[in-house]
Amino acid sequence: MSVRAKKRFGQNFLKNIHVIDKILAAADLQIDEQVMEIGPGLGALTDRLLQAEVKLCAVEVDTDLIAMLQERNNPRLTVVEGDVLRLNWSHLLSTTPCKLVANLPYNISSQVLFKVLDHREMFSRMVLMFQKEVGDRLLASAGSRDYGILSVLMQTWYEVRRVAQVGPGSFSPPPKVDSVVLQFLPLPETRFTIDDEEVYRKFVRGAFTQRRKTLRNSLMASGWSAAVIDAMLSAEGIDPQRRGETLQLEEFARLSRFLTHNKA
Ligand code: SAM
Fold first, then answer.
1. How many angstroms is it from 117 CA to the middle of ligand 1?
2. Most buried of the four, 27, 207, 245, 257, by CB within 10 Å?
3. Is 99 within 8 Å of 35 (Cβ atoms)?
4. 116-167 residue pLDDT tens
């Protein structure tokens, strides 16, 4: 069946079997374990997951592809039609934790990661393909221009590893950008103690709200009072002229602990 790829759904279908092999190896699949796939598309990755004899829940938004996916008639495969960002993930799977494996539609990859962060208990491992620039951000360290909210949040809860670099020729149609496959292994505990996750996530967002400005100004623009910020920076020995993008994970954790215990 010939299908015209839809740009609005970020459809670049994988055709390089070596890349699929690497994704599967990084997923370290066990027979009968539950896997969730976002955007099965024409099923290149889906079919290999099914060969690995997992129980697969595949979520696809493109109604034109649903019938073809269901025609596989494989009892191990459940195809769910819908927008993965709108579906209630807690209702999707009968057993968790599961593994999340996907060649993500690049236009929604950041939103998928924020949703993953809201459902961390669901996933024992993730292997995901991103546009290279997004991958660079997820792997970035403090001080780099790629370092941002998702670098900090994902590295707080996961060991993030690069599995493969993938060129445009591995897809049909070829995207205009390079891609990268990353593996996310949940850490048994956060790297540094976080007493209130909500405060931590709000603080990380605030530190990057105006990344060209100082941490102090960026946090004030996000609603914290000057008095609280100054007390925090002074108590924790942080130079008020520093920018949020220079903070290490340990510093994000320490400063957010101060905010948790010293509400204005
Ligand atoms: N997994 C296939 C492969 O590797 O060849 C297709 C990957 S393609 C990059 C992304 C897939 O995600 C497409 O099938 C697209 O229709 C689907 N998709 C896009 N937006 C989606 C959404 N919001 N929810 C679920 N699926 C989505």
1. 20
2. 207
3. yes
4. 999 999 999 999 999 999 999 999 999 999 999 999 999 999 999 999 999 9
Strand partners, 100: 36, 126
Q: What is the dihedral of CA 250, 255, 257, 261, to 10 degrees?
A: 170
| Distance separating alpha carbons of residues 209 and 221, to the nearest angstrom | 8
CATH architecture classification, 197-261: Orthogonal Bundle (1.10)
Q: What residue type is assigned to position 131 of the chain?
A: Q
Given the structure tokens 């699949």, which residue do they identify? 29
CA–CA gap between residue 4 and residue 18 (Å, rounded): 24
**Where exactly are the structural domains of the chain?**
7-186, 197-261
What gap in Å lies between CA 157 and CA 154, rounded to an integer?
Answer: 6
Q: What is the pLDDT of residue 2?
A: 61
For 155-191, what is each residue's pLDDT tens digit?
999 999 999 999 999 999 999 999 999 999 999 999 8
Ligand 1: which atom is nearest the Cα of residue 15? 5
d(CA 124, ligand 1 centre) in Å: 22
CATH topology of domain 7-186: Rossmann fold (3.40.50)
